[in-house]
Automatic annotation (TrEMBL):
InterPro entries: Acyl_CoA_acyltransferase (IPR016181), GNAT_dom (IPR000182), N-acetyltrans/Recomb-assoc (IPR052564)
Protein name per its UniProtKB record: GNAT family N-acetyltransferase
Gene3D superfamilies registered for this protein in UniProt: 3.40.630.30
A Pfam family of this chain: Acetyltransf_10
Length: 160
C-alpha cells in the first residue's frame, strides 16, 4: 500500500469528502440497511451542501491523503471526546485506514485531557469500534425524515 499522510481539514477537500461520505454508504452499507435508509443517509451532502460544509468546519477533522494527494478517508472529533464522523473510500476499505484515522482522533482527545471517547456507531461501523476497544452502552432508534435507523452508543476509556 502506498504511503498515507494525515492532515487537518482543508476546505479544498470538501467535495472529495462529500463523495467519500456518499460512496462509502452506497457501496458498503447495503449488507446492513435497506434502500430507503441508504438513499436518505448517502444523499445528505448533496441535499444539504451548506450544512455538510458547515459540519466539516466543526471540531477536529483529520483527512487521510494518498500519495496522489487524494482524500481517501476522514474522521471528525466534535466535541473533544465524540467521534462524530468516520468514513473511508470504498476502494480502500478494510485496509486499516479507518483505524488509523481513529487513532489520530484519539490522540487529540488524549491531548485535550479527555477521560473517555464516545461514538454513536452505525451497523456498518460498530464492529470496527468494538475492535478499537469501545463498549456498547445502549442501542437507540433514530428517525431521520421518517426513516428509522438502529444506532449504537459506545464508549471507550482513555489512558490518563
Amino acid at each position: 500500500m502506498r504511503p498515507i499522510t494525515f492532515i487537518n481539514y482543508n476546505d479544498t477537500f470538501k467535495k472529495q469528502l462529500a463523495e467519500i461520505y456518499s460512496q462509502s454508504i452506497i457501496q458498503l452499507a447495503p449488507r446492513f440497511y435497506n434502500s430507503a435508509q441508504i438513499e436518505m443517509w448517502a444523499n445528505y451532502p448533496q441535499q444539504h451542501p451548506e450544512a455538510f460544509a458547515e459540519l466539516l468546519q466543526q471540531g477536529d477533522v483529520i483527512i487521510a491523503i494518498d500519495a496522489h494527494n487524494h482524500a481517501i478517508g476522514f474522521g471528525q472529533l466534535h466535541p473533544h471526546n465524540y467521534v462524530s464522523l468516520l468514513y473511508v473510500s470504498p476502494q480502500v476499505s478494510r485496509q486499516g485506514i479507518g483505524r488509523a484515522i481513529y487513532q489520530q482522533l484519539e490522540q487529540i482527545a488524549i491531548k485535550t485531557h479527555q477521560t473517555t471517547i464516545s461514538v454513536t456507531a452505525s451497523k456498518l461501523s460498530k464492529p470496527l469500534f468494538k475492535q478499537l476497544g469501545f463498549e456498547l452502552i445502549d442501542t437507540e432508534i433514530a428517525v431521520r425524515n421518517g426513516i428509522e435507523f438502529e444506532r449504537y452508543n459506545m464508549v471507550k476509556l482513555l489512558p490518563n
